[in-house]
Design goal:
6-stranded mixed beta sheet; alpha/beta; 439 residues; globular
């Protein structure tokens, strides 16, 4: 799945940013009032224009030199610019350039992002002429637009699309390129150190301060004669809804990197207990359907006592991903890093595995004969037929006489692994009960 580019909508308070967002979305979604400062946080919306999908990030009014809440709003807007692929700077065409507008321009230039100057409130031909005064901001031609009436909205969307990076090729078109592997984990577990060790040079900034990496960092790495495109991602600290500022956009970027990847290395700090955040990150990878390798980093800090505790934690907390290969390594010393290539290949092979319909149904026939579904309400649902509808990850549709219990589905899943492997890959099962739409 290709990552959606992000377009940040920024500007001082009450220039009509949220109204413009609603106009560009083609639906009323952002909260709009005449009172300045209604939007205090950054809010993201999925948008599409001419078949291209992207994300619009609506931000609070941006003022320089702000204090208190206004400073936090400005920080959110600056974070949006830092993480965006393009920026729409909204100004009021009827007012002309203000001191606040001019103070924001250097920040936009330093971002080195494409900046589109939107002259809003150009509701008629006269105000469109007045918008020419905005050339003085030095950001190129102002684009007259009326968020209220829709004048110029289509032209503005065309300009936004032209400023966005080219859409990446679909997965089936990119199969000849390097396999994509994302390095994910919570902050300070050693993701950047691992990428530096694999690449043989300091590609990522490494610091003891958590959160050094914000944007994903790509690097081509050779493992056992195979070239991979590794992506070092920002550490995921908390739930998306709890994140703010740079952290929020870093989370979005990390999520996009996982969705673009074929395999993910989930890095855990072996010297510390498995945390709730570790489990959240694992869930993100599994739900995205990516091949998975567990990397227990900082093994040089693990003593005999910690190993005993870690074994218990793996059995108790990581049993749901017991199918994933695990590597005990030290990015700092290089211990066992050479084993990663084989682990990634194993996980990708499991992820791409495909069963013929004949083998699959012969297996399910034996399974149902030895372990039939329990009788429920006087009925015993049966699997009539099954098919693997896709790989990457392996996904199976079971056609049945009735709904199957979740415990029985988990039993079928475990049995598939026992007989056919699928090492390093999640397995998806879908049930289509006879006479129903399925699930």
């Amino acid at each position: 799945m290709a990552a959606k580019p992000v377009v940040a909508i920024v500007g001082r308070p009450n220039v009509g940013k949220s109204t413009l967002v609603n106009r560009l979305l083609g639906r009323r979604q952002a909260v709009v009032e005449d009172v300045p400062g209604v939007t205090r946080d950054r809010v993201c919306y999925d948008a599409v224009w001419r078949g291209r999908e992207f994300v619009l990030a609506d931000t609070g009014g941006w003022t320089t030199g702000a204090k208190g809440l206004a400073a936090q709003i400005a920080e959110q807007a600056e974070a949006a610019v830092a993480m965006a692929d393009a920026v729409v700077f909204v100004v009021d065409a009827t007012v002309g350039p203000t001191d606040q507008d001019e103070a924001v321009v250097p920040v936009l230039r330093r971002s080195r992002k494409p900046v589109i100057l939107a002259a809003n409130k150009a509701d008629d031909a006269r105000s469109e002429t007045e918008a020419a005064s905005l050339w003085s901001l030095g950001l190129g031609a102002p684009q007259p637009v009326s968020a209220l009436h829709g004048r110029g909205a289509g032209d503005l969307l065309d300009i936004i699309l032209a400023a966005l990076p080219d859409a990446p090729p679909e997965a089936d078109e990119a199969e000849d390129g390097p396999r994509r592997v994302a390095i994910v984990g919570k902050p300070n577990v050693g993701k950047s150190s691992l990428l530096n060790r694999l690449s043989g040079r300091p590609r990522s900034v490494v610091d003891d301060v958590a959160g050094t990496t914000v944007d994903p960092v790509d690097e081509l790495v050779d493992l056992d004669g195979v070239t991979y495109q590794f992506v070092d991602t920002a550490g995921i600290r908390r739930r998306l809804k709890e994140a703010s500022g740079h952290e929020y956009y870093a989370w979005l970027r990390t999520q996009s990197a996982v969705e673009r990847a074929e395999a993910c290395l989930v890095v855990l700090n072996a010297s510390q207990p498995v945390s709730e955040q570790d489990l959240r990150i694992l869930s993100l990878v599994v739900e995205a359907g990516r091949a998975l390798v567990l990397v227990y980093n900082k093994w040089d800090l693990v003593d005999a006592e910690r190993r005993r505790y870690l074994d218990r934690e793996i059995e108790r907390d990581l049993g749901h991903v017991a199918w994933a290969p695990g590597i005990n390594l030290s990015a700092l010393t290089g211990r066992s890093v050479a084993k990663l290539g084989q682990a990634v290949e194993t996980a990708l092979a499991g992820w791409e595995s495909r069963l013929t319909t004949g083998r699959l149904n012969a297996f399910l026939g034996r399974l149902a004969a030895s372990h039939p579904h329990p009788v429920r309400g006087g009925r015993q649902p049966r699997i009539l037929f099954a098919s693997q509808v896709q790989s990457r990850p392996p996904t199976f549709v079971l056609f049945t006489t009735g709904e199957l219990d979740q415990p029985y589905l988990r039993f079928v899943q475990r049995s598939l692994r026992q007989d056919f492997g699928f090492v390093g890959s999640p397995i998806h099962l879908q049930v289509k009960a006879r006479g129903k739409g399925g699930r």
